[in-house]
Write a structure and sequence with these properties.
Number of helices: 12
Largest sheet: 10 strands, mixed
Radius of gyration: 25 Å
Shape: globular
Structural class: alpha/beta
Length: about 325
């Protein structure tokens, strides 16, 4: 009888232990979903030119990422813009970046190195094309740029891409019919003030700090891009389909616009990585971008426009698996 009770006690103990193991396992699963792990390692984020929206956004996002991913070392790289950003990520020189949808489509269409590896994470905010001239300038349209000295962005920028396309749409050869000056938003405003430039193109979120600061110390105006020009631009097809007609609100640059809205062209910005980036890292990065929107938006206005409802639409790129995990986790 003693042996029977002993066997019974051992059996009860084993049963209790098994139940406890199951409970603990379920609790661990609830606290830490299957497959999820804390990202660790290094992360390089290619941004943009100093004083541009990409760089300002990247600097503030760096702080949010450091808080959310404490075991990840984050490095920011300034760049000339979208085209250089894409080349860096596609060839492994950076892990994440921001680029405009038209630049992405062009990179993929041209079969550039690593293009097939690119994946989208978040549709961020729209860039607005801004053609800036002195207020007393006689330039009233893109067609009036013929024979002028025009800042067209740096070689590796999205600005250069859209500026050349707009000039072509206006029947102006980008290098033969004007003096094209390769420069970024960090230098173009001062060159306009000193008279080294008659005009400059910029494509960025609203408001772009460098343009806003320029408008507060020097009289400028924004040249409208009329519907006929935009239709000619869009008629080119291909990556031009990512351009849309848009309007800069009257209060985007209060001193420059003086209460008047300005018709222009807009294009979406995408957060980009490659299919080789760790899904856990990408999921965490995507989560931080969405969760930090309001906090960063208080300093970089364009960040306020990141919208969870449209963030997953990263056309022309497939959404990265890690980003998909995030969107599934927040789906109602």
């Amino acid at each position: 009888m003693f042996h029977a009770l002993s066997r019974f006690g051992r059996r009860r103990t084993l049963q209790t232990g098994a139940v406890l193991a199951v409970v603990l396992g379920l609790l661990a699963w609830w606290l830490l979903p299957l497959g999820e792990r804390t990202p660790r390692g290094t992360l390089t984020f290619s941004t943009g030119v100093p004083s541009g929206v990409y760089q300002r956004y990247g600097e503030r996002l760096e702080g949010a990422l450091a808080k959310d991913m404490p075991e990840v070392s984050i490095k920011l790289l300034t760049s000339e813009g979208s085209q250089q950003n894409l080349a860096r990520v596609a060839t492994g020189k950076a892990d994440f970046t921001i680029a405009t949808a038209d630049a992405v489509a062009t990179y993929v269409r041209d079969g550039r190195p690593g293009a097939h590896l690119l994946r989208g994470c978040v549709r961020l905010y729209d860039d607005y094309v801004q053609l800036v001239v002195p207020r007393d300038s006689d330039i009233a349209s893109v067609a009036d740029l013929r024979g002028k000295r025009v800042g067209v962005g740096q070689e590796g920028s999205g600005v250069r891409l859209v500026a050349n396309r707009l000039l072509n749409a206006a029947d102006i050869h980008p290098t033969q019919d004007l003096t094209a000056v390769s420069a970024g938003i960090n230098t173009m405003p001062n060159r306009l003030v000193t008279g080294d430039l008659d005009a400059f193109f910029w494509s960025g979120g609203l408001p772009t700090g460098a343009v806003q600061e320029l408008s507060e110390r020097f009289a400028i105006k924004l040249v409208p891009l009329d519907q006929n020009l935009i239709k000619k631009l869009q008629s080119k097809g291909g990556s031009a389909r990512y351009y849309r007609s848009a309007t800069m609100p009257a209060d985007a640059y209060r001193f420059a616009q003086r209460g008047v809205s300005v018709p222009t062209v807009a294009v979406a910005n995408l957060l980009i990585t490659t299919d080789r980036t760790d899904p856990a890292m990408t999921e965490a990065f995507t989560r931080t971008v969405i969760n930090s929107r309001d906090r960063i938006g208080r300093e970089v206005h364009a960040a306020q426009l990141v919208d969870l409802r449209t963030a997953i639409y990263t056309d022309p790129l497939e959404v990265h698996e890690g980003a998909k995990r995030y969107y599934r986790s927040v789906k109602p």
